[in-house]
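To make this tangible, we now present a fold written out as tokens:
***
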Amino acid sequence: MRIARFSIDGNVGFGVVEGDAATEGGPVLDIIKGHPFAEFERSGQKVPLDKVRLLPPVLPSKVVAVGRNYAEHAAELGNEVPGEPLLFLKPSTAVTGPGDPVAYPSFSSEVHHEAELAVVIGRMCREVPRERVKDVILGYTCANDITARDVQRREKQWTRAKGFDTSCPLGPWIETELDPSDLGIMCTVNGQQRQLGRTSDMQRSVEDLIVHITEAMTLLPGDVVLTGTPAGVGPLNVGDEVAVTIEGIGTLTNKVIKRG
């Protein structure tokens, strides 16, 4: 099931995406009653997808991200895979949605794309045992861990480099019925392929990461876990269109603009 968060005529809601571009009339949203973090009903009120504005599929209290979870990506930046998952946080204010602009930060001159599989948490949880991980996951979406690489190198810690406004595009929707263990991940810039990998290349699986993270902190419904990026990260410039495509989910597209 694909669950999207959307806005229409000033109203915000959730809906189930039905159909695709090949469907007669195109995909539609069946608006749901309530929200996807509890039992919900479809209203039967359907709206063409192209008549709504898609929003970030969730508004997380926090985004917990994992660095250097793909060996080839760690190597391309001159790093080794750490002995334990390398965690950092992106604030909720970093989140932006599909089609929204990414504002190039004024304090950086080297901004990179990082295509990632994002895990959306469905219920409050902590100290989750491995066998219960699937029970706390609502689904999966596409993410781009936009990074000010020069600032990351200079400041050593990653708060400004990875936490600036619009540095965490998410979308276009949440796919709830997906096996995350071996999915293709691709990033293009202006239609040219930059990254191509598979989630099977992750050093720590989704289960590993959720167990490790929840040993330290409580995750809330709507929180997001970014699982790392494959090799091929590279620069973005003002005017670029960057797209993250994940097998079984869809494509998240954003354009880079000058920060006003």
Remarks:
- The chain has two domains: 2-54, 63-258.
- The longest helix spans residues 206-216.
- The helical segments are 71-76, 149-155, 159-163, 206-216.
- The two ends are 38 Å apart (CA to CA).
